[in-house]
Design brief:
heterotrimer; A mainly alpha (about 100); B mainly alpha (about 120); C alpha+beta (about 250); B: 3 helical TM bundles of succinate and fumarate reductases; C: about 250 residues; alpha+beta; Ubiquitin-like (UB roll); 2 domains; 5-stranded mixed sheet; two-stranded antiparallel sheet
C-alpha cells in the first residue's frame, strides 16, 4: 500500500513545482524563493524524496523481475537489478548536478 | 466480442515511461529545489537551482519538462488506481476524467511557464 | 490421559435452512502434523456429517480445497495446524465467490474465464503426425514453464482486491494461463488471445497489488505474467500505431 501512496507525493510535488515555475515565469522570483523556504513545504519535500526513493527501489526490483537479463548461463536476479539501477540513479543524479548546477 | 483496448495500452505505456522518469530524474530535482536550496546544502551555493538549471536554455528546460511532466503523469495515473483499490470504484469514471484533466493542464502549464522563462528555447544556440 | 485439542471454527451456511451464514466450533484432537483438511475430515467422519467442503488429492496438486484459513486464502491440505497462533483456527469459504453451501463456492465465473482464454495450443495449421513432433528447446520451455504450474485453485482471485470490486476483471490465473500459451513457441494463437487479455477488463484493471503471487501455492507468480502481458500490449499498440499496415507476423 505504501508503494501506491508514493504516487500521491510524486504528483503533489510536481504540482507544487509547476506553481513555483509559474512564479519564476512571471518574474516573481522572491515569491518562489519564499515558497521553497516555507518549513511546511520543506517537510513535505523530505517526505516526497523518501517516498520517491522508495518508488525507485520498488520499480527497479520489479523491472529486475519482469525483464531478467541473461548473463552467460545464468539469468539476473531482481536484487541485482535493484543494485545496478541504484548505482545508475546515483550516476545520473551526479551528472545532472555537474552539468546543470555546477557549470 | 473482446477488443484490444489500444488507447489504454498506450496510456499504460506512457505511465511506464513516467515511472522510469520518476525513478531516475525526480529524486535529484526534489533534493535540489526542495531540500538543498532552502537548507543551504551541497551543491547549492548561492543561487536557486531552478534559475541555474534554466540558465542552460535547452538541456535545462528539457530536463525540467521531462521530469515534471513524466512524474505528474505517473503520479496521477497511479493514484487513480489506488483510489479504485480503496473502494471508490463507483466514482471511477469521474475520478479518471479529473485525473486526466489535471495531467493535461499540468503538462501544458509546465510547457507554457518554461517557454515564458526561456522564450528563445526554440531558436538555435 | 489429557489430549491436546484444537478448535476449528467453520462457517456454516445451508441456504435451505439458514438465512445467514454462522460460525460453528468443533473440537478436534490436535496432532502436530495435522493439516486443516485432516481436521475437516475428522469433523465430518466423527462429529458432524453435514459439514460440506471440497477436497481431492490432499497433496496440493488438484486445487480443490481452497478456503480462507485465519483470513488468508490457502489450500486446507497445505495448512498445518502448527502454523497458526493458538489452538482456534477459523475456516471460511474463499472470498469473492458466491457460497453454495458451507465452504463450497460457486466457481462458474472462473470456469468461464478459463475457457475464454482458450487454454490449448492454437495452430494456424496442424502438422500431420507423419511430420513428427513440434520441437521445443529448453530455453523456449523456460519462457512459460512456471506459468503452466497453475492448479486452478482460485486462491489468487480471493486475494485480489480488484477482482473483489469488479467481477468482470479477467484476473490473475486466467491471465497467467493466457500468457503461458502466448509464450509457448508451439502456439500461434496471439491474434485470438490478445483481444481477451488486452481489453479493458483484461490486464489493464490490474493495479499491481501483488497479493495473487503471495498466496499462490505453486509459485506461478501471476503478477509477473500480468506485467509481462501489459508490456506486450503496450509495445503492440505502439507498433500498430507506427506501422498501421503491420510489419508481417
Amino acid at each position: 500500500m505504501i508503494r501506491e501512496w508514493t504516487s500521491f507525493f510524486v504528483a503533489v510535488f510536481s504540482l507544487i513545482y509547476i506553481y513555483e515555475l509559474s512564479l519564476f515565469a512571471s518574474g516573481a522570483k522572491d515569491s518562489a524563493h519564499a515558497l521553497m523556504r516555507n518549513p511546511g513545504i520543506i517537510a513535505f519535500n523530505v517526505l516526497a524524496l523518501l517516498f520517491t526513493l522508495y518508488h525507485a527501489s520498488t520499480w527497479f526490483y520489479l523491472i529486475g523481475k519482469v525483464q531478467p537479463i541473461k548473463l552467460g548461463k545464468t539469468t539476473s536476479k531482481p536484487w541485482q537489478a535493484l543494485l545496478l539501477n541504484i548505482v545508475l540513479l546515483l550516476i545520473i543524479s551526479y551528472a545532472v548536478i555537474q552539468i546543470l548546477i555546477l557549470r | 466480442m473482446p477488443k484490444v483496448a489500444r488507447l489504454h495500452a498506450i496510456l499504460w505505456g506512457v505511465f511506464s515511461m513516467g515511472g522510469f522518469i520518476a525513478a531516475f530524474l525526480l529524486p535529484v530535482l526534489i533534493y535540489l529545489v526542495g531540500i538543498a536550496y532552502p537548507l543551504g546544502l551541497w551543491p547549492v551555493a548561492n543561487g536557486d537551482p531552478t534559475s541555474a538549471i534554466l540558465n542552460h536554455r535547452h538541456i535545462g528546460t528539457l530536463f525540467l519538462f521531462v521530469t515534471v511532466a513524466g512524474s505528474l503523469y505517473h503520479g496521477i495515473f497511479r493514484f487513480q488506481s489506488t483510489l479504485t483499490e480503496i473502494g471508490l470504484a463507483r466514482a471511477k469514471r469521474a475520478l479518471e476524467a479529473i485525473g486526466y484533466l489535471i495531467i493535461i493542464i499540468g503538462i501544458l502549464a509546465t510547457a507554457i511557464y518554461l517557454l515564458q522563462y526561456n522564450p528563445s528555447f526554440f531558436s538555435l544556440p | 490421559m489429557s489430549q491436546d485439542v484444537a478448535t476449528i471454527r467453520v462457517t456454516r451456511y445451508r441456504p435451505e435452512k439458514d438465512g445467514e451464514p454462522f460460525f460453528q466450533d468443533y473440537k478436534v484432537p490436535y496432532r502436530k502434523d495435522m493439516v486443516v483438511l485432516d481436521a475437516l475430515n475428522y469433523i465430518k467422519a466423527n462429529l458432524d456429517g453435514t459439514l460440506t467442503y471440497r477436497w481431492s488429492c490432499r497433496m496440493g496438486v488438484c486445487g480443490s480445497c481452497g478456503a480462507n484459513v485465519d483470513g488468508v486464502p490457502k489450500l486446507t491440505c497445505a495448512s498445518f495446524l502448527h502454523e497458526f497462533k493458538g489452538r482456534t483456527i477459523k475456516v471460511e469459504p474463499l472470498p469473492h465467490f458466491p457460497v453454495i453451501k458451507d465452504l463450497v463456492v460457486n466457481m462458474d465465473d472462473f470456469m468461464h474465464k478459463l475457457v475464454e482464454i482458450k487454454p490449448w495450443i492454437i495452430r494456424d495449421k496442424e502438422s500431420p503426425p507423419e511430420e513428427g513432433e513440434y520441437r521445443q528447446s529448453a530455453e523456449e520451455l523456460e519462457r512459460y514453464q512456471q506459468f503452466s504450474s497453475c492448479i486452478n485453485c482460485m486462491l489468487c482471485y480471493s486475494a485480489c482486491p480488484v477482482y473483489g470490486l469488479n467481477e468482470k476483471f479477467l484476473g490473475p490465473a486466467a491471465t497467467a494461463l493466457a500468457y503461458r500459451y502466448i509464450e509457448d513457441s508451439r502456439d500461434q494463437g496471439k491474434d485470438v488471445r490478445f483481444p481477451i487479455v488486452h481489453e479493458i477488463e483484461g490486464v489493464w484493471e490490474c493495479t499491481l497489488v501483488g497479493e495473487c503471487s503471495v498466496v499462490c501455492p505453486k509459485g506461478v507468480d501471476p503478477m509477473l505474467a500480468i506485467q509481462k502481458t501489459k508490456i506486450l500490449g503496450a509495445t503492440n499498440a505502439l507498433k500498430s500505431l507506427l506501422m498501421p499496415r503491420g510489419a508481417g507476423k
